[in-house]
């Protein structure tokens, strides 16, 4: 089976593309850049094969879970230790050696986690699956195609922290009938002070026992799409226009992509971390740096990831999940997340004012297979009710 070989520069392109496609979540882009700079400073010059799942290799979903702001100073060593401890715990729990892993979602950090895992000599992971479970970043495990695949059980699920040695590592193995129950259990554990509000997570084992069920449970091509978008962004001598980025997304993903706010400014940020280690927030954007002079205002509501966007010019939402609500800046030529270190480029938390750098929002239609997956729309509806929206979701009719 033909595969792509991705090296360090490709990792950077993936992080840049995923920072747009991640819908405000999936980890901090600043963290991803810092980690990849560390990988370069270490002298790593290898490559990782990325290809479709072959339906014959032991696999699982591998990610970091928790609050991006709790992982605000994430280093390469932190990431590698969390991965190593999690993979070890998972392999002991399942009795299988992993040959490949797949991202849980699209995002600056979580698109990289399987790639970093494949660079480590501490495991047998030989390649990475080109895909994920959502085509965007999502707040919780049930909002994935993995959760909607009946043949793919979520557990055993392994959690582990980033302790400096295997002997000091704290880990947990969870067993539960549904991804929603795993999310509840895992969220409670990761939120504890002992774990520091983030950890590695491995789940949804795919092996001979379940007929390598991952084959039917993932969205193919999303990792290479992030790579191609990042390549486009990083190749520009000047930042791309928002409309051109939207058009490129549509070409690469075959999903409708539409700018819904172009060159606005972040003028207010309200964020807190809830009991499940999700950063809940409201982001206000105005069409002038000073909101006093604004003629148009939009609000983004998020739980790590953007879920809904309202405009001052209409009563109905402009965009609702599962559609993606993607950030892009014509000032920097990059996407970003809702993590504080990413937002700080565009919003001065000390003064409570915009930094003067413009921000755009692009609506990207959800992958059809994502909306069809059992339970995905119902799970999004539950999340949206928690932040005050009880209306109909796209694709639910």
TrEMBL record:
Domain S-Me-THD N-terminal: 10-162
Domain S-Me-THD-like C-terminal: 191-338
InterPro entries: S-Me-THD-like_C (IPR048350), S-Me-THD_C_sf (IPR024071), S-Me-THD_N (IPR010318), S-Me-THD_N_sf (IPR027479)
Source domain of life: Bacteria
Protein name in UniProt: DUF917 domain-containing protein
């Amino acid at each position: 089976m033909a595969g792509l070989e991705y090296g360090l520069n490709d990792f950077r392109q993936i992080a840049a593309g995923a920072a747009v496609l991640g819908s405000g979540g999936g980890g901090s882009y600043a963290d991803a850049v810092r980690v990849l700079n560390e990988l370069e400073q270490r002298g790593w010059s290898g490559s990782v094969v990325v290809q479709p799942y072959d339906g014959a290799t032991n696999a699982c979903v591998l990610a970091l879970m928790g609050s991006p702001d709790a992982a605000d100073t994430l280093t390469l060593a932190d990431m590698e230790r969390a991965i190593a401890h999690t993979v070890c715990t998972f392999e002991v729990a399942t009795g299988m050696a992993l040959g490949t892993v797949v991202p849980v979602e699209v995002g600056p950090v979580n698109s990289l986690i399987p790639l970093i895992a494949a660079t480590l000599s501490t495991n047998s992971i030989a390649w990475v699956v080109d895909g994920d479970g959502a085509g965007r970043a999502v707040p919780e495990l049930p909002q994935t195609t993995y959760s909607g695949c009946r043949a793919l059980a979520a557990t055993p699920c392994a959690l582990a922290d980033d302790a400096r040695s295997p002997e000091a590592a704290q880990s947990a193995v969870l067993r539960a009938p549904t991804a929603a129950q795993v999310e509840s259990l895992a969220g409670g554990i990761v939120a504890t002070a002992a774990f520091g509000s983030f950890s590695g997570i491995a789940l949804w084992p795919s092996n001979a026992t379940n007929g390598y069920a991952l084959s039917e449970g993932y969205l193919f091509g999303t990792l290479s799409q992030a790579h191609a978008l990042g390549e486009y962004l990083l190749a520009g001598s000047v930042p791309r226009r928002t409309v051109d980025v939207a058009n490129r997304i549509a070409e690469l993903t075959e999903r409708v992509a539409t700018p819904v706010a172009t060159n606005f400014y972040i003028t207010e940020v309200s964020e807190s971390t809830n009991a499940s280690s999700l950063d809940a927030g409201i982001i206000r954007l105005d069409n002038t740096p000073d909101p006093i002079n604004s003629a148009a205002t939009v609000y983004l509501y998020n739980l790590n990831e953007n879920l809904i966007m309202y405009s001052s010019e209409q009563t109905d939402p402009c965009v609702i999940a599962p559609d993606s609500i993607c950030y892009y800046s014509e000032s920097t030529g990059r996407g970003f997340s809702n993590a504080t270190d990413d937002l700080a480029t565009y919003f001065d938390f000390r003064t409570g004012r915009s930094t003067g750098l413009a921000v755009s929002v692009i609506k990207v239609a959800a992958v059809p297979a994502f909306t069809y997956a059992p339970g995905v729309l119902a799970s999004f509806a539950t999340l949206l009710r928690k932040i005050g929206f009880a209306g109909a979701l796209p694709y639910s009719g």
